Amino acid sequence: MSPSIRLVVAGAFAVALAACQKTEQPAAAPTAAPAVVLTTPADGNPEAWKAFLAQQLQPYIDRRYRRPFLYFIPNVDPASPDATEQQRQYDSQLEAVENTVGRGVQAGSMLAFGGPNSTKVGDVIVSAFAFAGPKSLKGVRVVVIARAAERARIEAAVLPAEPEFIWVDMQ
């Protein structure tokens, strides 16, 4: 064998040996951006509140409850320059919730409630669930995001309709 062929064979052998000894490094998993946990908005900004409520709701959306209806209950501040618009939005949500609960909700649906003023959230729920018949919401999930002081009266209004009731204490 000529020296040049020996060199080629030796080089090929070295490459083959190196390939056999090479250990595969797993591909680095793409790093996901850390989840941003939103805190309770300090003001009544509706967009901040809607984002906060949607984030709070995420753990409760699953295969069984794929149709979430999120009701953002706005605050009504009589001293605000847009108090009339706030009241109109509040009244609109109240009417929408009363109509929804009154006509019935399909099993597998989820109703979620929240807003900057837990008392107003409670007022809407208590008023709307007065239209619900006993056991009329079996198979429906109701999620309420509000302050603990409202829990007893909200539960008393909701539980006779027998939905799956989830309370999220707003800090």
Q: How many structural units, i.e. domains?
A: 1
Percent strand equals 5-15%
What is the string of helix and strand elements?
Answer: HHEHEHEHE
Portion in helices: 40-55%
* Count, helices: 5
For the sheet with most strands, the description reads: 4 strands, parallel
* Strand line-up of the largest beta sheet: 1-2-3-4
Distance between the termini: 83 Å
Radius of gyration: 29 Å
- State the total count of DSSP E strands: 4
| Sheet/helix structural class | alpha/beta
- Which regions contain 5 or more consecutive residues with pLDDT less than 50? 1-34
- What average pLDDT do the residues reach? 80
Overall geometry comes to globular
Characterization of the model:
This protein has helices at residues 3-21, 46-57, 83-103, 118-129, 151-158; strands spanning 67-72, 109-114, 141-146, 164-169. The chain is α/β, with parallel strands linked by helices and 171 residues long. The protein has one domain (46-169). A four-stranded parallel beta sheet has the order 1-2-3-4, with helices on both faces.
Which descriptors would you attach to this protein?
single chain; alpha/beta; 4-stranded parallel beta sheet; disordered N terminus
Short description, anyone?
This protein is α/β, with parallel strands linked by helices.
SSE blueprint and pairings:
Blueprint: H1 3-21, H2 46-57, E1 67-72, H3 83-103, E2 109-114, H4 118-129, E3 141-146, H5 151-158, E4 164-169
Parallel strand pairs: 1-2, 2-3, 3-4
